[in-house]
Design goal:
CATH class of the largest domain: Alpha Beta
Helix content: 40-55%
Oligomer: single chain
Largest sheet: 7 strands, mixed
Strand content: 15-25%
Distance between the termini: 58 Å
Structural class: alpha/beta
Length: 267
Amino acid sequence: MKQIEANQPIRVVMFGSGPELNHDAKQFLCRLGEHPEIKFLGAFCQAQSQSSQAVFIDLWKRRNWLAFPLFTIWVINRTMRFVLHRREEIALQRSLEKISDRIRFVPNIHAQNVLEQVCALNPDLGLIYGSPILKPELFEIPRLGTLGIHHGKVPEYRGNKTTFWAMYNGERVAGVTIQKVNRGLDTGSIVKTGEVSTQGRAYQAVIRDLETLGLDLYMEAILEVKHGIAEYRPQSGVKGKLYRNPKPGDFLKFWSRQIRRRVGITK
């Protein structure tokens, strides 16, 4: 496999989804666009439209009645982030504007015209951040394959909302994994891993730390691929079940535990 010349940047393309990219996905895009050893070719994000209404519709399709509290939390988080971190948010928005012409929202990320556009970019490496499950005809286009970030330890925690389930199950740590995407679901070779403590901590605090750690690990993995020193380790250990999105009862039980722990009730 042809290596990247030392004086040439690695050419990357990102795959995502949703009517609005998550905050950490936006940070990732900006870091890709600003890094001198990375050439950000573009991002393809699957979404029907981009608006607050589209965010709610997307939540309703995926979570039904849970869409109401989840949308409320989304609005509150978005508002508080701007109020508490105004300068950082403005800087992030300005950085996004510089690469906005390379961020494409498409109804179907596997449509033939999208596949042709990705091929035309001739990427070295594909990068997944919150995309739908990709098919081989897309993630195999980049000549060095595609990496994905998974906020969970593998193979124990595969699937959706694995940080929630790790804390729900009483794990002492929650993990994040950078893996090379294959035809399975969260079964690819591991490139980088990390973990943060969950002990006595609020769920959102754990999420924030995992996102920060995950961004750093992802950037390290990209550069290791560029320099030809990335190590791809097969997953080992007992494969856990494939986790699904929590149901309302799961949320109620989890938050009840969190509140009881906060006020010192252990039983």
